[in-house]
Amino acid sequence: MPGNKRGVLISFEGVEGSGKTTQARALVEWLGNAGLPFIFVREPGGTPVGEMIRSILLQPGLTVNPRCETLLFLAARSQLVAETILPALRDHMIVVTDRFADSTFAYQVCGRGLPPRLIAIFNRFATSGLYPNLTFLVDFDARKRRERGKGQDRMETENDTYHDRVRDGFLKLARHARKRVKILDGEKPVAELTQEVTAQVKNLLLNKGYKL
Prior knowledge:
- The protein is α/β, with parallel strands linked by helices.
- The protein has a single domain (8-207), classed as Rossmann fold (3-Layer(aba) Sandwich).
- The chain is 50% helix and 13% strand.
- Strands 2-3-1-4-5 form a 5-stranded parallel beta sheet, with helices on both faces.
- The radius of gyration is 17 Å and the shape is globular.
- The chain starts with 7 loop residues before the first strand and ends in a 5-residue tail after the last helix.
- The mean pLDDT is 94.
């Protein structure tokens, strides 16, 4: 991979039930079939520490203060970046993550009403300044999440008004980061979205010097 000093980070974002995880897994399957070096992680989680934090954050019925919630998400992300993502990028691997720092902007800044500038600083601290090379935002009406079997964990069971704010937050972020964030229509057939994702990733990898 001439000229590629480090690997590539690709994130998938979206509201609950959007289908982002399905698309992330489809991309991982394509990378494996293509013989490309990759790892697949999720947020919160991806490390022993992160998975313990995940169990707290998603526990149904548990009351968590918004500031505490934010710090827990950031703690899990910090561990994931330090323990898994950065070492993989140094080894020129392709890192696919189901959620990353953009989720904090959507869920905690827009959803919970926390201060954006302060959270942005915390996010940069937690990620060591790391940003994805490419982000796929699977846009979807969160009010339909229960039709897709979503609505069991603590975040999923938040009211519709909250999830509307989260969706609006993702779209606002996408408008401000057009080069990095690609919006996908979550209402489209899964196979069609997978083709869109694969085409975008192929272009990115070729530009980064990967041989396909």
